[in-house]
Amino acid sequence: MRTVIATIILFLFTSMAMAQEGLTLQEQKKLNTFFSNFSEAYVTSFTQESLTSDQLLYFGLMHAFINFQDKPMETEDGESVYIPSELIDKITKKNFNKTVSEHVLKNYLFPIASGEAFVFSQIKTINHLGDDVYSASGNIYSASSGSDIDPQGSPEDWLKAGEEVLVTGKFEATYKKTGNGFILLSYDVKAVSTEQCPYAEESTNMVIGEYQGVFDKDGVCYASVVSESGDFVDFRCANVEQALGSAAGKQVAVIFKIAQFWNDAKKSCDSGAFFAWGNELK
Fold first, then answer.
1. Do 202 and 187 form a contact (C-beta atoms < 8 A)?
2. Exposure of 57 by Cβ count < 10 A (0-12 exposed, 13-18 middle, 19+ buried)?
3. Is the overall model pTM greater than 0.85, yes or no?
4. For 63, what's the count of Cα atoms within 13 Å in the CB-facing half-sphere?
5. Residues near 113 by Cβ (< 8 Å), separated by ≥ 6?
6. Which tens digits make up the pLDDT trace of 185-197?
7. How far is CA 154 from each of CA 28, 122, 165, 199, rounded to the nearest angstrom?
8. CB 252 within 8 A of CB 258
9. Are 246 and 252 a contacting pair, CB within 8 Å?
10. What average pLDDT does this structure show over 258-263?
11. How is the chain split into domains, by residue range?
């Protein structure tokens, strides 16, 4: 209860700070939505100099899947969606003013997932750095899948609704105002230490790599990826086999997902199994 009360007090203090900065409630909501785009896609830290095409591709795929599921892009079996590279470029251009340097595929096959955690962000502070550039800091929240809460609400609202909402991360960022929105210039995100990993179980951490899998003569897909320790790991990309069927001897572009889980013995997050899917290279 003390934690809940402290969170509510912090929220009220933050609201007053926003008012002092001259930020209207409508502007605050727009910024909350803008930064939620990155937290719900589990975007990792970057600067303008370090932002890679892999990160852009990762964000474009996740954002398209989360926000455009009503589009007619499903596969016949209804288990995946096709996400056009043109849509990915449109998304990254709008949010980063950058696009993927070179696409290996015209359409990316992305599996339909269920049970994902409800992740969103709220800003705490903003500072004008000059021209149209601002710095911002805020919290990243996580609620269970299917939670019917208002991401623009307060911890008091969520408590009254009987929903458990955890602070799973904090971020600092710089962004630029544009005529029709914002562009993210840098992003520094840190996990909050709890006995629940920010990207664990149903909210898994996506890792994109420019890797190719190979189907052997028996139609089994194998691929090598670089693990977090920097080692190459060979694994069977069974999800790719399921998506593409028999493709003996052919190469595929593979997208990777690494599960994370809380290791109670070490009191830290560990990486779990690799998952993969992809498209046959033409």
1. no
2. buried
3. no
4. 26
5. none
6. 999 988 775 555 5
7. 13, 10, 10, 23
8. no
9. no
10. 57
11. 1-195, 205-280
